[in-house]
Amino acid sequence: MSFKDFVTDHRRLFILQLLNEVGGEASEGIVYDVCRRHFVPNRGLTRDALHDDLEWLRERHLVAFDWLDDTVLVVKLTERGGYVVSGDIEVDGVTRPRRNG
């Protein structure tokens, strides 16, 4: 696995964990801002890269999209995405979360 793939897999888990922490949904803008501020390394994280990750997660039914007033993309954690966050299922391309304890 390349370092770029390693970072991408971790970033996808970070996005799912973020959505889980904030009640299951957030605007794309909030997800982007939090990833830029708190996900290390954030070098190279553009909106295009985030959109690629979000679309990748949506294609695997880990998140769903909704539009608020046809202008704001809202990203919603699906039940399947929640299972990934809890470690109950594994999805290739998303780092498996560490178990507490």
Description:
- The protein is α+β, with helices and mostly antiparallel strands and 101 residues long.
- It has one domain (3-86): Orthogonal Bundle (Arc Repressor Mutant, subunit A).
- Helices cover 50% and strands 15% of the residues.
- It is built from four helices and three strands; from the N terminus they run H-E-H-H-E-E-H.
- The chain has helices spanning 3-21, 28-38, 47-59, 79-86, and strands at residues 25-27, 63-68, 72-77.
- Strands 1-3-2 form a three-stranded antiparallel β-sheet.
- Helix 1 packs across helix 4.
- The longest helix is centred in the N-terminal third of the chain and has 19 residues, at 3-21.
Instruction: Provide the CATH superfamily.
Output: Winged helix-like DNA-binding domain superfamily/Winged helix DNA-binding domain
Number of domain units: 1
**At the first level of CATH, what is the class?**
Mainly Alpha
**Could you report the average pLDDT, rounded to the nearest whole number?**
92
Strand content: 5-15%
> Number of helical runs?
4
CATH architecture: Orthogonal Bundle
Number of strands: 3
